[in-house]
Amino acid sequence: MSTGCRKTRDRPECLREGNAMDLSSTTLLTLALLGYVAGSLAGLVFCRWERLANCLSFGGATLAAGCGTVACARLLATGGTVAPVQLQLLPTLVPYVQFTARLDSLSVFFGLIVSVLGFALSLYSLGYARGFFGHKNVGVLGAFFNLMLLATNLVFLSDNAFFFLIAWEIMALSAYCLVSFEHEKPETRSAGVFYFVMSHIGTGCLILGFLLLFQASGGYGFDGFHALGDKMSPGSRNAAFLLFLIGFGVKAGIVPLHTWLPEAHPVAPSNVSAFMSGVLIKTGIYGLARVFFDFLGTPPMWWGVTVLAIGTISAVLGVLYALMQHDLKRLLAYHSIENIGIILMGFGASLMFLNTGHPLLSTLALIAGLYHTLNHALFKGLLFLGAGAVLHATRTRDMEHLGGLAKRMPQTAFFFLIGAVAISALPPLNGFVSEWLTYQSLLQGFGTTESLLRLMFPIGGALLALTGALAAACFVKAFGITFLAQPRSEAAAQAHEASFTMLLGQAVLVAACVFLGLFPTLFLKLLDPLTQQLTGLQISSQLTLANGLVLAGTNPAGGTVSTLGIAVLGIALLAVPFALWLMLGRQTRVRIGPTWDCGLQGLTPRMEYTATGFSKPIRMIFKALFRPRREVQREYDFSPYFATNIRFEAHVEEIFETRIYRPLNRWVLWLSRRMRALQAGSIQAYLIYIFITLLLLLLFAL
Question: Is the whole-model pTM more than 0.90?
Answer without folding.
Answer: yes
